[in-house]
Amino acid sequence: MQFSPDGEWYWDDAQWRPAYSPDRRWRWDGRQWVPAGPPPVQQWRYEPTQWTRPLQVIVIALVTFGIIVLVASLPTVLLPAMQQNMDRSIAAQPTSSNVDPAQLRSMMNSVASVTLGFVALLVAASLTIIVIGTVRLWRWVYWYLVAGNLLALVSIVQNTMYAFGLGTTSLPTWWFLASIPFALAEGALGLWMIVLYRRYGTWARRRVPA
Fold it and tell me: Burial level of 59, CB count in 10 A (0-12/13-18/19+)?
C-alpha cells in the first residue's frame, strides 16, 4: 500500500483514492477504515501589505510630534498657566498674618513642577510603549490608537469654544487654535485605520494560511 507524501491519497494498484472519508472522521490504513481523530487546526500568519509600513511611519511621526510638543509646552505654556491659576487662588484667599504669600506661592510652584514632571514621565512612557507596539505590530496598540484618535475629534468642539472665549481657561488662545489641526489629523488617522482594518486587518495585514 502506497500513500502520497501528504497522506491524503493511497494507491490501490489501479488509481489514487482518497485516504480520508468526506467528513475526515475516518482514514484508510491499508486494510480498513479507522478513526482519523480530530481534524488538524488551521495555522495562520499575518502578511504585511503595501499599507503596513506607511501606517507605521505615520503613527510614529505623529507620536514623535506629540512628544516634542509636550516637552516644549511644559516650561512655556503649561507651567505658567498653572502658576497663573495658583496666583489667582492665593489672591482670593483671605489675608492672614500667619501665612506668607511669597512662601505659599513658592511651595505651590514646587508642587506644580513636581506634578507636571510626573505627568510628563507617565505620558512619555505611554508614548514609548505605543512606538514599540507600532514597530512590533501589536494588535492591542492598534485598537488603542483607533479609539484615542477618534476621541480626539471630541476635543475640537471644546477647544474651539475656548479659542473664542466661550470658557474659562488660563491657556493662551493660540494653544487651542493650534491643537485643532492636530486633532483633525488624529481623527483622520483613526478613520483611515478603520478602513484599513476592514480591507485587510490590524496594521493593514492579511491573515493567510501558515
Answer: buried
